[in-house]
């Protein structure tokens, strides 16, 4: 057991504050990672603020981790000391159920272990990446290719894979019209990835404020959803809409934008139930689906794809003492486009 510095939530409302957390001893199949960078995902905020239910405090969040392997267990074969690795939303799963065997550990039928607010093997609550070090099973540590700037690697482990997975699974590519709703952390990755896959990409954002950015990230079109004309002009247009919005949206209005056999895939995770008018689904044989992060193999595929295509998130580096301010900016949709914590500022020697 070792103690490491962290930035920790003590309640749903108190600002995060410096503290320490325990990391387990390195087991035979574990790697110890010195965390260099930790991304701030909107899910961190939903979790701590209790949007998704009660959580045990104190809790350290963060599931976009990039770091360097500092120690390996005796049976580790995938990684060695000094390797650049990433850890996303999962730190364990049963590895035996049909879904784990199919490489979609995020749908482990026994439930995967979340990087934070999960139940660890020893029964303790898992603690996340706003910390100096983490110990994980080697299976859940990804290889970060050299071509990806290290400080930009962390957000790929959640924002990257969560958008890559539905784009791949719903066949974004040449000849397909893809819309991305919400240009935040996930949304801007969806735009870059869909463009690199060859799709015709449209951004649907609340305002025109980020238009230049959206086009620079590879979008072919950009529209404001605050303009009712947008919904008339774009009716029956898209093959795929990836919804990344962290708040409820008027799903029927967006369903109307789908062409024949089009699908809306929601990754945005507001807690409220959503209303869908079935008659809107009947038209154009539309569908409405959800998607959760991505499996380990697909996460590695995404990292390699980003390296090959020169794709990385737009990041704003923050010190530990700026995390609370960064959270407020995320909540105000004022993130350009992912905050990444410099883990060397988390305190202690
Ligand atoms: P983010 O950076 O805050 O981006 C969300 C974007 O949604 C904002 O930038 C904004 O874009 C838009 N938005 C926010 N509030 C809105 C409102 N009231 N009405 C309309 N649009 C609004 O958040 P993120 O980190 O990308 O995460 C997005 C969501 O995905 C969160 O709910 C998060 O928990 C969830 N998530 C899910 C998974 C999964 O596996 N399914 C994984 C990671 C995250 P514009 O200003 O451009 O409109
Ligand atoms: Zn996340
Ligand atoms: Zn399983």
Automatic annotation (TrEMBL):
Domain of life: Bacteria
CDD domains: CAD1 (cd05283)
GO molecular function annotations of the record: alcohol dehydrogenase (NADP+) activity; zinc ion binding
Cofactor annotation: Zn(2+)
Catalytic activity field: a primary alcohol + NADP(+) = an aldehyde + NADPH + H(+)
UniProt-listed SUPFAM superfamilies: GroES-like, NAD(P)-binding Rossmann-fold domains
Stretches assigned to coiled coil: none
PROSITE patterns registered for this protein in UniProt: ADH_ZINC
UniProt xrefs under InterPro entries: ADH-like_C, ADH-like_N, ADH_Zn_CS, CAD-like, ER, GroES-like_sf, NAD(P)-bd_dom_sf
Residue ranges annotated for the Enoyl reductase (ER) domain, each copy included: 11-341
One Pfam family it belongs to: ADH_N
Keywords noted in UniProt: Metal-binding, Oxidoreductase, Zinc
EC number(s) on file: 1.1.1.2
Gene3D superfamilies linked to this entry: Medium-chain alcohol dehydrogenases, catalytic domain, NAD(P)-binding Rossmann-like Domain
Family from the record: Belongs to the zinc-containing alcohol dehydrogenase family.
The protein's name: alcohol dehydrogenase (NADP(+))
Originating species: Nocardiopsis dassonvillei (strain ATCC 23218 / DSM 43111 / CIP 107115 / JCM 7437 / KCTC 9190 / NBRC 14626 / NCTC 10488 / NRRL B-5397 / IMRU 509)
């Amino acid at each position: 057991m070792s103690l490491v510095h962290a930035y920790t939530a003590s309640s749903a409302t108190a600002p995060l504050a410096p503290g320490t957390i325990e990391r387990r001893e390195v087991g035979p199949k574990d790697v110890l990672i010195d965390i260099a960078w930790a991304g701030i995902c909107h899910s961190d905020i939903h979790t701590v603020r209790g949007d998704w239910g009660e959580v045990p405090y104190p809790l350290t969040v963060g599931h976009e981790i990039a770091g360097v392997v500092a120690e390996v267990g005796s049976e580790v074969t995938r990684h060695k000391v000094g390797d650049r690795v990433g850890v996303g939303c999962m730190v364990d799963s049963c590895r035996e159920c049909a879904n784990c065997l199919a490489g979609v550990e995020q749908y482990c039928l026994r439930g995967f272990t979340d990087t934070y607010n999960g139940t660890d093997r020893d029964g303790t609550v898992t603690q996340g990446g706003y910390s100096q070090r983490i110990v994980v099973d080697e299976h859940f540590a990804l290889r970060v290719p050299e071509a990806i700037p290290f400080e930009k690697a962390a957000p790929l482990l959640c924002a990257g894979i969560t958008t890559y997975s539905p784009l791949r699974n719903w066949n974004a590519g040449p000849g397909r019209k893809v819309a991305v709703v919400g240009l935040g952390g996930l949304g801007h990755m969806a735009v870059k990835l869909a463009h690199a896959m060859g799709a015709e990409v449209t951004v649907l954002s609340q305002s025109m404020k980020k238009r230049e950015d959206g086009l620079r990230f590879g979008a072919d079109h950009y529209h404001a959803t605050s303009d009712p004309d947008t919904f008339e002009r774009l009716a029956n247009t898209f093959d795929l809409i990836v919804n990344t919005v962290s708040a409820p949206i008027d799903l029927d209005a967006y369903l109307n934008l789908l062409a024949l056999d089009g699908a809306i895939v929601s990754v945005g995770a507001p807690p409220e139930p959503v209303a869908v008018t079935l008659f809107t689904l009947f038209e154009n044989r539309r569908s409405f689906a959800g998607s959760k992060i991505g499996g380990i193999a697909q996460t590695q595929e995404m990292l390699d794809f980003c390296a090959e295509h020169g794709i990385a998130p737009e990041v704003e580096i923050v010190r530990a003492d700026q995390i609370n301010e960064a959270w407020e900016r995320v909540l105000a949709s004022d993130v350009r486009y992912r905050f990444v914590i410099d883990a060397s500022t988390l305190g202690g020697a």
